[in-house]
Amino acid sequence: MWIFHGADSSTRLWPTWTRWCVCYAAAALCVLCSPVRTHDACPASCACARDSGTVTCRDGGDSEVPGDVPDWTTTLILVGRNISTLQRGAFMSNGTELDMTTLSLSYNGIRAIEPYAFLGLPRLHLLDLSHNQLESISARAFHGLPELRSLYLNDSLLPSAAAQLSNALSAQSLRNLHRLELAGNRLKSIPLVTLDSYNLHALVLVNNSIESIGWENVTNLYQLKRIRVYLSSNPFRCNCGLGAFYYWLKNSSQCPDAGRLLCSEPEAKRGVPVEKLRGEDVDCMTENLEAVSYVFLGLVLALIGVVFLMVLYLNRGGIKRWLNNIREACRDHMEVYHYRYEQDSDPRLANVAV
Ligand SMILES: *[C@@H]1O[C@H](CO)[C@@H](O)[C@H](O)[C@H]1NC(C)=O
Ligand SMILES: *[C@@H]1O[C@H](CO)[C@@H](O)[C@H](O)[C@H]1NC(C)=O
Ligand SMILES: *[C@@H]1O[C@H](CO)[C@@H](O)[C@H](O)[C@H]1NC(C)=O
Ligand SMILES: *[C@@H]1O[C@H](CO)[C@@H](O)[C@H](O)[C@H]1NC(C)=O
Ligand SMILES: *[C@@H]1O[C@H](CO)[C@@H](O)[C@H](O)[C@H]1NC(C)=O
Ligand SMILES: *[C@@H]1O[C@H](CO)[C@@H](O)[C@H](O)[C@H]1NC(C)=O
């Protein structure tokens, strides 16, 4: 500051070239003496390992992403910080891009991811957002990550964020994604609109709330031979309707943990491995046939009943006569009996007499 003042006050006295000299000297002095901001220093409350390019920042109590990450960082690990919101360009240091390839943000209490939060990380390969409490994820949260291959979101999504996930995971922004891990998020279905526009090799959906996978999705999966879907620890509903999924499990070998999928409903099949079900357990045709056959039996019985009633009705004259005859016969019989009874009204006497 003072140097420029000096230069100003001497404007009239010194020739132009001298003034320039003074300016350059001052600038050089400034650069040399300025409190080093060379993008090389380790940020406060972080540990830096320059050999491996790793910066690890733990439990800073900081609610901020460190803004002064060294240029050489290839792996940034933040753990146990209270970040709460990832803002646009949260990892842009001074508006410049970083060559980072791995970013781990698990256990940071992140609740919201704003649009373009990961701007400035064009070479990012792996992003771990596991074990946060995400309430909202912008549809443009993952824009600007053309190289992203692995995205981990285990135990991280609250229901509101889970509902926004399929928008955020649009293929347009994540076309190189190979591995997507979504364990422990109470998901009820595959949170992707399509699968064929990604380059997915592994989709991990273990420990969620998936009861079944419909035939549309199964058809989609069959077409993507390279994809592997992990599905253990989901509450499968093993009734008719699981059919397409059941045959996909048996047929496709696209589910590496198929042997560990268990039924949770109906009660009678709880704990039974899905693979051990019989074809007829999951076949709606059999179930329907059974229902149909019961209905049919009912109808036949009803028909027989109706025919019987009709026969009765048509023969009502004959039946009346017949009933009369019976009644007459009975009365005759009774009369005879009555007469006899009156005759030997004292059987003892009769016996004595005999
Ligand atoms: C995290 O930060 C928020 C505000 O940003 C605050 O309300 C909350 O108490 C903090 N939690 C912890 C565990 O520090
Ligand atoms: C970083 O930004 C500060 C001001 O915010 C600026 O003084 C400095 O020159 C910038 N450094 C780089 C390397 O862009
Ligand atoms: C969850 O994410 C971690 C990375 O933080 C990963 O190592 C792990 O295999 C993932 N999957 C499960 C099922 O926990
Ligand atoms: C399964 O997910 C729930 C959250 O949905 C989590 O609390 C639990 O720890 C997970 N279980 C395992 C074995 O990871
Ligand atoms: C799964 O099927 C539903 C319709 O049942 C559809 O909306 C969704 O896009 C499908 N997802 C995939 C990944 O095929
Ligand atoms: C494969 O699935 C079809 C139904 O889509 C089924 O008819 C066929 O029997 C299955 N093949 C095997 C080997 O399970």
TrEMBL record:
Domain named LRRCT: residues: 234-285
Coiled coil, from the record: none
InterPro entries to which the protein is assigned, alphabetical: Cys-rich_flank_reg_C, Leu-rich_rpt, Leu-rich_rpt_typical-subtyp, LRR_dom_sf, Wnt_signaling_inhibitor
Signal peptide residues on this chain, from the entry's feature table: 1-38
Stored PROSITE patterns: LRR (PS51450)
Gene Ontology biological-process annotations: negative regulation of canonical Wnt signaling pathway
A GO cellular component annotation in the UniProt record: plasma membrane
Alphabetical list of SMART domains matching this protein: LRR_TYP, LRRCT
Keywords on record: Leucine-rich repeat, Membrane, Repeat, Signal, Transmembrane, Transmembrane helix
Entry's transmembrane regions: 291-314
Pfam families hit by this protein: LRR_8
PANTHER family: LP06937P (PTHR24364), TROPHOBLAST GLYCOPROTEIN-LIKE (PTHR24364:SF16)
Protein name, as recorded: Putative trophoblast glycoprotein-like
Lineage: Eukaryota, Metazoa, Chordata, Craniata, Vertebrata
